[in-house]
């Protein structure tokens, strides 16, 4: 074990799951479990006493549930919280993100445990979170500066959005700012652990006025439709706004891939916009290059409002304009309406 190992607090009401997490984490010399809590109140106590680098948090716990514990911990300290959940059809993990959690993984089955790939995914997310600067309570958005942002001239008819760590809350912020009359479909690639896409779709559907569902092979998208890429398939949009899936190899480690989505939108030229929100890595950047060459619009979340600036930085370096998260929705609405917006 290294002298600077990542300190992890495990909060899970199941002793079996807590021990499974400890085994997986302690097997990696980059990290170690410094404490285990079996209820929300104990998690708050240990978080204050141990000051862990990362906290893994179950949503369902006695005495105080994970949602309430997350809010109280994040109000008191700059904790990086990784939600661990088995079944998130109700979107509780994403509600946890709204309260301050940074990422989510699937909880191991008490008997089946995790696969080797899931072990690697958990450790990768812990390492990534340990490198993320965190504040306590989210700060208020910066004052709105009024200046004119010109559109490209052509009316945008379809929007692609990509995100990873910190993405669900950023996506919810963008969608919540769009009117029910938003006159274009939106397709979203959010990097998630397997089994969580449906919960994300339901949570976002509750958070905005648009119709959010999992994407379906062959469907024709209409204005106001928001579609989430399902697990383990690339999603492309063909001419005529028809959704197509493929299971080609992962692109830069991702399937679904934002680069695959954005590259497909390039066929619509100036009538498409690609947006990259908070996340690790570079997914989407090369796809935005193709989109911009075809005349489309590329937008990236700015560093100040991103949980992780990796993907937005790569998008910015590929030529995307950068905007604070609260300005991206109005910008998209203006592009779809082919007008200017005071931002």
Topology:
Layout (H helix, E strand, L loop, with lengths): L5 E6 L3 H12 L4 E7 L2 H11 L3 E5 L7 H11 L3 E6 L6 H7 L4 E4 L9 H15 L17 E2 L8 E6 L3 H10 L9 E5 L6 H11 L3 E4 L10 E4 L5 E5 L3 E5 L11 H8 L6 E5 L8 H9 L3 E5 L8 H8 L3 E3 L1 H13 L3 E2 L1
Parallel strand pairs: 1-2, 1-3, 3-4, 4-5, 7-8, 7-13, 8-10, 9-10, 13-14, 14-15
Antiparallel strand pairs: 6-16, 11-12
Enzyme class: hydrolase
InterPro entries: CheB-like, CheB_C, CheY-like_superfamily, Sig_transdc_resp-reg_Me-estase, Sig_transdc_resp-reg_receiver
Keywords: Chemotaxis, Cytoplasm, Hydrolase, Phosphoprotein
Biggest β-sheet, characterized? 7 strands, parallel
How many angstroms separate the termini? 50 Å
Percent of residues in helices comes to: 25-40%
Mean pLDDT: 89
Pfam families: CheB_methylest, Response_reg
Protein name: protein-glutamate methylesterase
Domain CheB-type methylesterase: 152-339
EC number: 3.1.1.61
